[in-house]
Structures are given as structure tokens and as C-alpha cells.
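tool_call: predict_structure(chain=1)
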Amino acid sequence: MCHPGLAYLCMALMWFKQLQTDRSLILCLLFFSWIPNCVFATMPVDYSIRQQVGYQFDQFDWNIAGDPDGSGPNVLSELNWRDLNVLQAGIGGKLLLDNTLYIRGQLSRGSITSGKNQDSDYCNDDRTGEFSRTDNQSRGYLNSDLLGVGFLVDNLWGRNVFLIPQIGLSRYRQYLTIFNGWQTVSDICPFLGVYQESSIGELNGLDSSYEALWDGQWMGLELWWELDTKHALLFNFEYHQMDYAAKARWNLRRDFAQPVSFRQSGNGTGNVFSLTWEYWMTPYQIVFVEAQHQVWSVRNGLDTVYFSNGKKFSTRLNEVNRYSRRISVGLEFLF
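tool_result:
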């Protein structure tokens, strides 16, 4: 016999078991959409499935200090990814029980088709004395999973405005590659033991990667405004508290261990804003356009380098920053 907790359990298992294949994720969402047919026959239920595609523009950077105290120098190495062009697709489900309890799940996958990367090393404080810089190309992918639970508050400023406070869990994964590199700056830095310049020109064989996971919980608000019988606006805000964990493979650094050359960790926060315009084509079909902006950051984390001789060294991860903007279109089917 079906049980109403199964819908929530399905989404929770999807989260905690970290399902890796899109097939498993889609099957879980299909199960989520099927459950109300057999479970909630005696309870007022509204549920929907939405699909969307869009274009996303990302920027991402981090930098580390020379020692755990944040000095020697205060910015030793800085990585910057810019102009990351992302083709994004997502599928989600919404469930409203007894016109009160609200459950929302969202899965999104993005392919980074192109991007630029710059890797700079500094000999002195405040990003001075740059002794190494490479300019590279980048690709990769982005994954995001979100689960939220809240309650519906209606009759705000008239019967056509609804407020939904929520709490939930979220996970965001970035996988970034670095290739087609070019050494553009090379100098010595006796303070750091660099007495020989590298050759200016192409970096043959560059094939490095950086993978980051933002994992945590969030709280937020949805404000839904029914403009008339055909049009509606939806404003959504989410505040996230995240655990940040990253690992990298620097394949040209023979003194670094492979395949994990260093790891980074820290505590971060994120803010997500979105505005959605909805058009009701029929009572059961909605077309929508969504604009979204995300800002993520980590401060004062830990960076640990693993050397090929078995030794390791830890220093301060000064900061991590991610900025994302997305525009998408989609269809929502109500049942």
C-alpha cells in the first residue's frame, strides 16, 4: 500500500545516496509524480512537473595564502575562471497537500561548453611581484539538486497573492577542466625558492581539473502573485549555508601527487534570487520564463597540498567566489 511519506523518502534517498546517473534521478522524479494517484485520494492534492532549458553564465575564483596565518605572501596563488558558458536543463516537481503543506524538488544539469582560466602566482603581498601566469581554456559541467518543504500562506494583500516560507537541503557540484594553456608571465621569486624562469609559450600536455561540492541547507521565501486569469509572477529567494569541499588534479606539477594534488575545505554561504513570469495556456499547462542570479562565497578555509614524496602542507584558503546568472524557459504540467 502506498504511503504519503514515500514521496519525501524518494527525494531524500536521491540526496543522501548521491545518485550519479540522470536515469536514476529522472526515475525518482517520475515516482514522485505518480505517488499522489494512489496515496492522496482522500486529501486535496495539487502537484506538477516542470521542465526547463536555459543559458547560464558563470564566474568562479579562489586564492590561497603562503602559510596558515594568511601571510608569506597574503595571496600566493589565485585561480580565476571567467566567461563560463553553460547550457542548462532541469526537471522539477511541486506538491501541495491539503492546500497547506508544500514540497518542492529540483534537479539541474549544465554543460560548460567554453570558458577561460587564469592561474597567477605572486611573490609579494597584495598581488604584487607576479612571477607566474598561465592563460588557459576551460570546460566541464555543473550539477545542482534541491529539496524544500514549506507551507502556503494565502489571502495576503488580496486573494491573488500567496507566500510560501521554506526550508530544505541543497547540493551544487562544479567540475572544471583546464587545457590548452599558455605561459604568459615567468620570473624568479627567491623568497619562495623559485630561481629559474619557465619558458614562455604553450604548455604542452596541460590536462588539469578542479572539482568542488557545495553541500548544505537553506531557508527561503516564494511570493506568488496572480496578475489575472492568465498571467502570474513568482519571486523566489533562498539563503544557503554550505560546507565546501574541493579537490584538484594538477597534472603538470611533477612534485604534486596524482590524481589528487590538493584539497580545499571551508564553510560558505549562498544567495539565490529568481523572478519567473508564468502564462497559463490551459488550466493544466503553464509556459514560463525565469531569470536567476546566484552569489556564493567561502572565507578563511583550508588548502592542503599533497606532494609526490608523500608529504603534505596546509595553508589558508583565503576565499572562494562564484557568480552565476541564468535565463531559462520551460513548461509546467499540473495534475
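agent: Confidence is low (pLDDT under 50) at residues 1-42. Proceeding to next step.
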